[in-house]
Task: structure prediction
Amino acid sequence: MDQARRYLVEGSVQGVGFRFFVERVARQLNLSGYVKNLRDGRVEVYALGPPEQLADLKRRLEQGPRAARVKRVHEEEAPLQERYRNQFTVEFEGGLW
Result:
């Protein structure tokens, strides 16, 4: 049964290709959801899928791409948002690239 999780990734995670790393990993794991930069310097990830794949995603978030320096990954349960099912997107908040 699918579950949903929200991850907040802290550290040097913006401007280093982190969102596109997350998008690639999520698609490899067949997860749905989104990734976006937040104004406070963190990256938010919402993922929907089987618990095993979500656990794998968290492990990969903790590693990040080479250029990133992940300090911490906060995880919490999230409500299922059907609008994200069957897609994983990179979202842009207020012009943040």
Remarks:
- The beta strands are 3-12, 32-37, 43-49, 69-77, 88-91.
- The chain has a mean pLDDT of 94.
- The chain has one domain: 3-91.
